[in-house]
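Appendix B, Record 12. Input sequence as logged:
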Amino acid sequence: METLLSVEQLAAVLHKSPASIRSDASRKPASLPPICRLPETKRLLWRRPDVDAWLASFVGGKSAPSLVDSAQQLNVVSTNKRGRPTKSEQVRRARGTEVHR
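Logged structural output:
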């Protein structure tokens, strides 16, 4: 017989609060191991082997690349200024004069 984990037990395994486990189960179930739904019950239960396999899928030899590393590898340089253009930039663009930010 496989061991079933309750919300509180899964919270202890994942080092999260039971409230966040319940919230994640309804709002973003992909962020949790597969839920074991028993017929005619609303209890949230997880099979221990599923939890172990789900956790093992995140273990790797390399650390995850950061966004900065990815951008540097692609040599992506953003030349656009963030936010809404100024009024003078909008007027120049409407007149057909190129705006260099």
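The first strand starts at residue 4 and ends at 5.
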